[in-house]
Automatic annotation (TrEMBL), chain A:
Superkingdom of this protein's organism: Bacteria
Parts forming coiled coils: none
Membrane-protein topology: Multi-pass membrane protein
Family the entry assigns: Belongs to the binding-protein-dependent transport system permease family. HisMQ subfamily.
Subcellular location: Cell inner membrane; Cell membrane
Entry function: Part of the binding-protein-dependent transport system for glutamine; probably responsible for the translocation of the substrate across the membrane.
Protein's recorded name: Amino acid ABC transporter permease
From TrEMBL, chain B:
Record-given protein name: Amino acid ABC transporter ATP-binding protein
Keywords: ATP-binding, Cell membrane, Membrane, Nucleotide-binding, Transport
Keyword Membrane part of the UniProt annotation: yes
Lineage start: Bacteria, Pseudomonadati, Pseudomonadota, Alphaproteobacteria, Acetobacterales
Key word Transport present: yes
Membrane topology designation: Peripheral membrane protein
Pfam families with a match to the protein in the record: ABC_tran
One MF annotation (Gene Ontology) recorded for this entry: ATP binding
UniProt cross-references to PROSITE patterns, sorted A to Z: ABC_TRANSPORTER_1 (PS00211), ABC_TRANSPORTER_2 (PS50893)
Species name: Plastoroseomonas hellenica
Cell compartment(s), UniProt: Cell membrane
First-listed, main subcellular location of the protein, grouped into a coarse class: membrane
Family: Belongs to the ABC transporter superfamily.
Length: 221, 261
């Protein structure tokens, strides 16, 4: 069986695909930023000696770990207006769904990195008269971060690909735009091949930049 | 008689059911150099670590310049224990420096950054002033040419000397050395002990947990033999190390002397 590949029609829709790419990057950037901040708070809560902080954070992580991402998308987009009388646009709903879910996973990444440092570094900081907060900020986190790079990237790649679920909310990200291109061109093979190529290129650029950052961060070893 | 800088009264430390320290009364005068010796598990490291609250004492008091640390707290059943606020402990630790067996340098900082860290973060000194003080201490331990090296590039002996400079930079009233040469290769022990002796000659008040009995003999002003969580025998280096009165001290010293030549 032969198939005549013809990318011309698909490539003619490049502006639409580029618009989708920007949509994907917007959601990913917002969700990573928010997810990292929330994840750090959750990690610190889980490491706290107080159960009143530890317990809710653990419940949050367990909830997100054990439910599929698309449920979070639907919940933020369809359930929030009904339950809380808050209407979110597709961008905000997708960002919140991704950010909260990723925060749960980032929290575990951070917690693992922080726990991987032995008591000696804490003691050295405290012995100089540092508060626990100062020791965390100056001594523990900078070292923990270098150990988190690999799992952090893994999680961020996963997040970037999960942004495609925002298409179910009719948000104009890459996958949604691709389905539009497909409807206009009737060239599904070419459309989704180009789409896959765009994801690969994007993530490849991402991992190259991350590798460079990791080498600089761990120069002291 | 010089003033008492650091004092403990009835200090006890328990780890679960195990009593590690059982009522330690210790008075450290300015300029004293106290060597604490004893077998493994005798509580000597724990005693040192209670003095800067790396461990929280189970009972008893620690006094710095005559002022008790912590606040008494009366329980419903009438018992009185001591509560230690984090802020109070931070203040104590700025005045009681510690050097660890495992050095515990900050691996992500250069030598000079390690020594400046306490001055910058805790004492909030301006960068130039902190750098000046750090340089002075690194000169003292003979490492002024390694400023921009990371700890991973240094030998164990050099790392420990940086750790000493880091503690000294805070200008503590008392220095605690917790087996500072125990994790070093034998040929690196000398350079660390020489640095500590330099401090001794400058009149630094110090407590030193060590297995280097020869060093204790030459540098300490007082030797304490700790056994089963109490002071078993104390006195001048000559009295404890050359003319021990108690059987157990003699046995300990004999086991250390077994393979000398």
């Amino acid at each position: 069986m032969r198939y005549d590949w013809d990318f011309g029609a698909v490539l003619a829709q490049a502006p639409l695909l580029l618009d989708g790419l920007i949509g994907t990057l917007r959601i990913a950037a917002a969700a990573i930023g928010l997810g990292v901040a929330l994840g750090l708070v959750l990690a610190l809560m889980r490491l706290s000696p107080r159960w009143l902080l530890r317990w809710p954070a653990a419940a949050f992580v367990e909830f997100y770990r054990n439910t599929p991402a698309i449920v979070h998308f639907f919940w933020f987009y369809f359930a929030m207006p009904v339950v809380l009388d808050v209407s979110l646009d597709a961008f905000l709903a997708a960002t919140l769904a991704l950010a909260t879910q990723s925060a749960a996973f980032y929290a575990e990444v951070f917690r693992g990195g922080i726990r991987s440092l032995g008591p000696g570094q804490w003691e050295a900081g405290r012995a100089l008269g540092m508060t626990d907060g100062q020791a965390m900020r100056r001594i523990i986190l900078p070292q923990a971060m270098t150990r988190m790079v690999a799992p952090f990237l893994e999680r961020s790649f996963e997040l970037l690909k999960t942004t495609s679920l925002a298409s179910t909310l009719a948000y104009g990200e890459l996958l949604f735009r691709a389905t539009q291109v497909n409807s206009a061109t009737f060239r599904p093979l070419e459309t989704y091949t180009v789409l896959a190529g765009m994801y690969v290129l994007l993530l490849f650029l991402f991992s190259s930049a991350a590798g460079f950052a990791e080498r600089r961060m761990t120069a002291f070893r | 008689m010089a003033d008492i800088v650091l004092e403990t009264r009835g200090l006890c430390k328990r780890f679960g059911p195990i009593e590690v320290l059982r009522g330690i009364d210790l008075q450290v005068r300015a300029g004293e150099r106290i060597a604490i010796i004893g077998g493994s598990g005798s509580g000597k490291s724990t005693l040192l670590r209670c003095l800067n609250f790396m461990e929280t004492p189970s009972e008893g008091e620690v006094l710095l310049d005559g002022v008790p640390i912590g606040a008494p707290r009366r329980h419903r059943d009438g018992r009185v224990t001591t509560a230690y606020s984090p802020a109070a402990l931070c203040r104590v630790r700025q005045r009681v420096g510690m050097v660890f067996q495992q050095f515990n340098l900050f691996p992500h900082m250069t030598v000079i950054e390690n020594v400046m860290e306490g001055l910058r973060t805790v004492k909030r000194l301006p960068r130039a002033e902190a750098r000046g003080k750090a340089l002075a201490q690194l000169h003292r331990v003979g490492l002024a040419e390694k400023l921009d090296a990371y700890p991973a590039r240094l030998s164990g002996g050099q790392q420990q000397r940086v750790a000493i400079a880091r503690a000294l930079a805070m200008e503590p009233e008392v220095m605690l050395f917790d087996e500072p040469t125990s994790s070093l290769d034998p040929e690196l022990v000398g350079e660390v002990l020489r640095s500590i002796r330099t401090l001794a000659e400058d009149g630094t008040t110090m407590l030193l947990v060590t297995h280097e009995l020869g060093f204790a003999f030459h540098v300490a002003t007082r030797v304490i033999f700790l056994a089963d969580g109490v002071f078993h025998e104390t006195g001048t280096p000559d009295a404890v190390l050359r003319h021990p009165q108690r059987e157990r001290t003699r046995a300990f010293l004999a086991s250390h002397a077994e393979f000398t030549f």
